[in-house]
Amino acid sequence: MNDKRDILILGGGLVGMTLALAAAKKGISSHVVDMADPASLTAEGFDGRASAISTASWNLFTNIGLGERLEPFGCPIDAIAVTDQMKPGRLDFRPEPHEGSLGRMFANRELRLALFEAAREEPLINWHAPVQVVERMRGEHGVSATLADGTVLEAELLVGAEGRRSPTREEAGLELAHWDYSHRAMIVGLDHEKPHDNVAWEIFYPAGPFALLPMLDGPNGQHRSALVWTVDEKDAAGVIALSDRAFLAEVEKRMGDLMGKISLNSKRMAYPLSFQHTIKIIGDRLALVGDSAHGMHPIAGQGLNLGLRDVGALVEVMVETRRLGLDLGDAEMLKRYEKWRAVDALMVMSATDGLTRIFGIPGKLPSAIRRFGMGSIQRIAPLKRFFMEEARGMTGDLPELLKA
After folding, report:
1. Bridge partners, 138 (sequence order)
2. b/e string for 23-54 if b means 16 or more Cβ within 10 A?
3. DSSP states of 36-101 as a string?
4. Most CB contacts within 10 A, which of 16, 25, 260, 274?
5. What is the value of pTM for the model shown?
6. pLDDT tens over the chain, length 404 residues
7. Torsion over CA of 17, 20, 23 and 24, rounded to 10 degrees?
8. What are the φ and ψ backbone dihedral angles of 231, each rounded to 5 degrees?
């Protein structure tokens, strides 16, 4: 059985499905193929992670018709507080009231529910899940994927959106720069006594960053935040093995009385952290987006936002390709996508990698130097504004879909 569409997206996660919806809004049809069961991905407790959605990414969701669905589930980030081990010299980012928030925090489950509901309603999206891909083909005149049941899906362009272990990238032989941070991110939801006032906290310790991210209050009005605590790999097994009571005691040591009395509201999860950057994100009739192209440390919460900028750029390039009457797999147009994304991706990834290393240097002198630097940024308004605009994702050559 053959079924040809404009693009074939392998990977139906947050980035892959956003790409399908954004493309559909521009009249571009797609197959979306994913090995995971959508019902499992949206089940309560499957994924305790949350994502910081920047201003630019929120513009994208709004422009593709998801703003109204998502609005009730997002907690505004009105300010970001950065501190070195809770010592004096804190750096605060807080925009003026008329500028809106620095972003919004969403549970990943709510993002998936909104994306999947919209995809089911979109006739230009043919969604195949859960299915296995047994063969990928890229030829002179098109691409195809053969599913385990023998179904053959055809398109003009293949998009790899499967995540860090992308088999499409591996099969294409695209070179990858990679290193392991030898750290794990401990992720859990917290209930706490004091309100968070919509402030995201990034507390740096030599062993790794400790982030408290504001979430909407719970059903009974309980104040909630998402914790992302980076621990050294050699300590990870011990931290994972802690009882809930002992785990909370360790958390309280690092945050003090910032949020008052705390308790857990979800199961604890742990994820290994690494850096990976694909040198080339295109091939013959192939483009990579999201973590298939670049995976970074979660230190600044920019991973998903970087992938959504990939989406905006690729859709804009495809629309231009169509306007010129060209095939979506046109090599020159794909080069434009790669060139557009190369500088932005490398800058963001270099910045997060650099922050991880700078704040990971132990000792009183490095800490004093870091706090002096943060104090300098706090006093220099133009520099502070630049960092705020970076956090909001509003710098550089933005695709139209990411503009208000």
Report:
1. 143
2. bbeeebbbbbbbbeebeebbeeeebbbbbbbb
3. S-HHHHTSTTS---EEEEEHHHHHHHHHTT-HHHHGGGPEEE-EEEEEETT-S--EEE---GGG--
4. 16
5. 0.91
6. 567 999 999 999 999 999 999 999 999 999 999 999 998 888 877 677 899 999 999 999 999 999 999 999 999 999 999 888 888 778 888 887 777 789 999 999 999 999 999 999 999 999 999 999 999 999 999 999 999 999 999 999 999 999 999 999 999 999 888 878 788 999 999 999 999 999 999 998 888 889 999 999 999 999 999 999 999 999 999 999 999 999 999 999 999 999 999 999 999 999 998 888 898 999 999 999 999 999 876 766 678 999 999 999 999 999 999 999 999 999 999 999 999 998 787 767 666 665 666 666 667 766 666 766 766 666 666 766 776 777 788 888 899 999 98
7. -120
8. -125, 155
Domains and CATH numbers, the chain: 2-57+106-177+274-368 (3.50.50.60)
132: left (phi over 0), alpha (psi -120 to 50) or beta: beta
Tokens of 152: 């053959």
**Structure-block tokens of residue 356:** 């991880």
Cα separation, 391 vs 385, in Å, equals: 10
What are the structure tokens assigned to 80, written together? 């970001």
Prior bond of 130 cis (ω within 30°): yes
